[in-house]
Batch of 2 targets.
Target 1
Amino acid sequence: MASFSDSMTVTLSLGSQPFQMAVAERLQRSGALRRLLAFPAGVEIFDPNGIEGLKLVRRYRRYTLMNRIIWAAWRRLPGSGRAWNMPIVVSTGFADRLASHWVPSATIFHGWTGNCLACIRRARQYGSIILIEQATMHPNDWRDALLEECATFGIHPRDCRAILPTALMRRMEREFELADRILVPSRVALRSFDKAGYGGRTVVVNAGVDHQFFVPPSETIPRDVFRVCYAGRVELLKGIPYLLQAWNQLDLPRAELVLIGEVAPEMSRIMRQWALSNVRFLGCQSPLELAKWYRASHLFVFPSVNEGLARVLLEAMSSGLPVVATERSGAEDCITSGVEGNVVPARNVTALAEAILWHFENPEASAAMGKAARSRIEHQFTLPLYAERVIRLYRDAVGRSGEASGGRTDSAIAS
């Protein structure tokens, strides 16, 4: 297990991904955490507090209130529905500036893209090594994929909520330029950053999942109804139109498709056109309810056309589900076709339908894939293993920094 020397310190900036907290806990236990900047619940600053864990030293309550006011006011403006996410640019920039006042001197600053540009600049003043973590492909790939989907299904980009504001994309690009390392969750994401010119500074760090929370059912689920599950936003980039078309073509007896997640407004026409009566849209669910649906299903399908490594893939596999996913979802990093499930080409309705049909017609072999999926998670994608991958990256980054400066690397992480 990798460990830190006494002189190694890390300032960690958390984004919206829950698995990042595993790194914070690992750093806290080793005594290497300098400070934690947390954004999921607003802007909160935590310092290590010995064996007691973390101590909250500042919470910007006014930021949370201001953020609500900005969103409420924006929604009331004429035409705001066509640029619904513009307040994100303002709110993330403001949160970043508030947090930047709390960035201390540390060996490493590890941030999350989109909300740490000011923090990076402050960390640079202390000579910190800058690591930026990105959950998806490069923003250019995101934009291009979305524009292609809009053109395919006759939806104007301004009516699609997934479109990234240009100002936010520029902000993220500047963060990439300033970073010493860019962490991405999969090989498909790495290729997108290589295409954007960052291949030499980008490294794959597979994410992790809470395998003690997302667990397989205690008993075999009856096949009275073949239940296929999807979780995530119900929108164009997730490939939902292709899934609905494939399900429509199959028209399987005693089967249902369950889609869990917020439904984007632009999907209304597509849903009316292709959704059969045995398709259920459940909306957003709590983590506890989501885990129950995983355990009540026989197959998880994720047809995304643009992803990093979807967290729901790991959650479903951890729950003992075989998976059908596209090669654009990050699935090639966690699924070997024919072992834990099937990896199919994105935007290919026929291939998607054939893969679902195979699992319908081969229940025993499909269940065996679900067991293999759970085993793959236990051996490669747990939260502690994710934290260890990040720790090794810290060690490598500090070692390379020391080599570049020609000095000793007393602060390097020791094995």
Target 2
Amino acid sequence: MKITTQMVKELRQATSAGVLDCRKALEASNGDFDKAVKALREKGLAAAAKKASRDAKEGLVGHYVHPGARMASIIEVNCETDFVARTPEFQTLVKDLAMQVVAARPRFLKPEDVPAEVLEQEKAIFRKQLEKEGKPAHIIDRIIEGKLNKFYEETCLMEQTFIKDNSLKIKDMVTNAIARLGENIRVRRFARFEVGAED
């Protein structure tokens, strides 16, 4: 099948991939648009995984103040270059992440950041609940593991479901941005403020 300039242009608009990559993907898929999109996405995610080890020392500090000014957040998101930090896509990502912090109230960035004492406390609470429910001892640990995963999804920013698209986790949203922007992106830290709330 002959690959036209128009086909390449449409694929480029849909994926933000380079012209040559678009042409190669279309040739490999014999002009099948959906297969070409899938191939480019997979290639982008593989490239994103490679970029994850690179230094990210540029970026932005973003913020979001909820209407009524009773809740707000501040977040630092790093990338590799000032050029990417100034792009509208990176700025939108930072703003969305700041909004996520206000709306979803994460306490930690990643599961590895949850202090051991907090984990032990949660496990003890889950164990007591399950024993009260009369669950057999040999399956309690497995149930606790599942409950801990749910705990991470609620309390760790990177594990949370994105408030604007519940088919997407925050970590996937960041990985997708790495694939599209071509640089490592790292959420470094955040803080959430609420009038009258305890720390």
